[in-house]
Amino acid sequence: MANVTVIGAQWGDEGKGKVVDWLASRADVVVRFQGGHNAGHTLVVGGETYKLSLLPSGLVRGKLGVIGNGVVVDPHALLEEIERVRGQGLAVGPENLRIAENAQLILKVHAALDRAREAARGERKIGTTGRGIGPAYEDKVGRRAIRVCDLAEPETLAEKLDELLRHANALLVSLGAPTFARDDLLAELLALAPRLLPFAEPVWQRLDEARRAGRRILFEGAQAVMLDVDHGTYPFVTSSNTVAATAASGAGIAPAAVGFVLGIAKAYTTRVGAGPFPTELTDATGQLLGDRGHEFGTVTGRRRRCGWFDAAMVRQAVKVGGIQGLALTKLDVLDGLAELRLCTGYRLGEETLRHVPAGQRAQAALEPIYETLEGWSGSTRGARSWADLPAQAVKYARRIEELVEAPVTLLSTSPERDDTILMRDPFEG
Ligand code: IMP
Q1: What pTM does this model have?
Q2: CA–CA distance, 266 with 285 (Å, rounded to integer)
Q3: Which of 126, 148, 192, 266 is deepest in the core (most CB within 10 A)?
């Protein structure tokens, strides 16, 4: 049985939530493998609105949810989210949520560091979500991190907190921010331990069993390829790898088990936070896309920057992210525009490029090369087959397929889950 991995193909917020929810209803297990509570999506199921940021979406559909080792877990955020969805009538317990015992914890000190650093960056800030994601991953790689399993070993916890704080407090002092006391953090974590440990286990074993039993596993990516710490527009990126390959290492499963890789892309482009954005529109069209697309960050509440579809960038995301099929979302936001533009490459001084270069100054200087397409006057909203779409909308989607070198396997035409045109079932491989 094929598995499916869903990743974002732009800078996040591509509408992964709806697609993941749609696929989750057909999966047995849903796994988060990177990121933390910097992600966020809204699911509307049976008239109830669920705002999830750390819990795998499949929980809402009655599936087993797994938080893999690649995720950074803020215990307060997790427990609050569990309480919130329980209050909405959803049962969440160790029977339907498992957390990797080797996942790292985000502590209050990480969020404090994240915010203090951003403040110190001033004009050059990254625009992080301020949730401590970067500092938590730094501590993981620095071999100082507290892991879920450490909650069961008070002595290990005390020793590791000492080491972690030696590092973090020195930084906080240099940034002019308040420091943290070991004993306060220790008491806080020990108080949380009995609530978290029942969820902890070696999730790789459960996933291995699920795989051998022919269960369908859905890997739910957060953020997107252009925010990948290696492949994105560094340093304006998140602190994890967001490409499909991470599903294997971030869950503890074979690379082959990642299955069909579905990349999600909006029919235009948005970005929250700072960093290069070659096709950004600061004019009335940009405003219109933002208004129509309700482009406000779920986590940050900030208005998203909007622009034309950047096919050169998505093509790169297809290649480095391992995307085999594209789900194109929010096509209806473009309804009624007289003409549309697709970016096919960039001019950089005298050079013409078909890819996003790695250099920070080069990225900031890219001038998009556009191809102009005629818009459509009809509506695509709610369309459930290609035949329901205006001819120009079909042309637009087909041209995107050619430019990004990946087939459009799914088209979403409204926020409603069933307003989806399926060209190929990702679970069939
Ligand atoms: P961090 O992940 O909080 O460190 O933020 C780093 C960058 O990633 C910032 O530009 C954020 O706005 C962006 N980012 C993080 N999570 C998301 C997301 O779920 N959607 C879109 N952008 C995100």
Answers
A1: 0.96
A2: 16
A3: 266
